[in-house]
Amino acid sequence: MKITTEELEGGITKVVLDGRLDIEGAAAVDLKMNVLAGSKMLLLLDLQKVTFLGSMGLRTIVVPAQTVHRRGGKVVLFAPTAMVENVLKSSYINNIIPIHHELSAALAALK
Amino acid sequence: MPEKDAHKAEARLTLRSQLAELSRVWPWVDALAAEYNLPGETHFAINLCLEEALSNIIRHGYHGHPDHSITIDFATTGTSLTFTIEDQAPHFMPAESKDAQPAASIEEYRPSGLGLQLMRQFAGTLAWEPLPHGNRLTIGFTVAQAPGK
User: Fold this and answer.
1) Most CB within 10 Å of its CB: which of A3, B19, B111, B147?
2) Which of B22, B55, B106 lies closest to A96 in CB terms?
3) CATH number for the domain that contains residue A35
4) What CATH number should be reported for the domain holding residue B122?
5) pTM of the predicted structure, to 2 decimals
């Protein structure tokens, strides 16, 4: 599991996750995700390259999102594959963190 | 002598009760998916259900004790795929495990109980039965066409 970041206009940090967010993948990126959650206010989590998402991976997304929200920031999820989105919706994540498939809509949701 | 028109195959994977052992499940499932030409959605669902089931056994059934074993048997008949997981952990009562509920806000969301909930969503069938010294979990999937080599 790889994680890279890119600073966009408007104070938005794009976080690209690449690989399987299984137990092993979640452990590999948890620290970086928590650091981002503690230091950034607007996170766009790019899930295009996430090929698998399990319950431990869900925690990797939700817990930092809760941290950002507590700090007054926002998180959006961008472009998950159909199966990954199915996991997100089965876990009701879409009720608490918006999912967008258009970049413009994802960026607008962070403003 | 196998039935003439029934395609059957079996395979077994034995794991130690350590989360690191889960890395052995992926290549096993990948090989089965390739061998039986499984659809991508089924492949994903199998990986999801096995990861959730096995991690629950290791973390909650064996409470992290690393020297127990878990066996996974795979079988296919017609359009049905079956994974049978056996452990020697204390009896598991799935009815006592509640699914996560929709949260009104992000602060109220509790990411617990998700594994079982995901298994219920992604598996075709789930059946637990107590063994004299452990548990048997049977996870079934159905594919549109009989998986072929």
Assistant:
1) B147
2) B106
3) 3.30.750.24
4) 3.30.565.10
5) 0.90
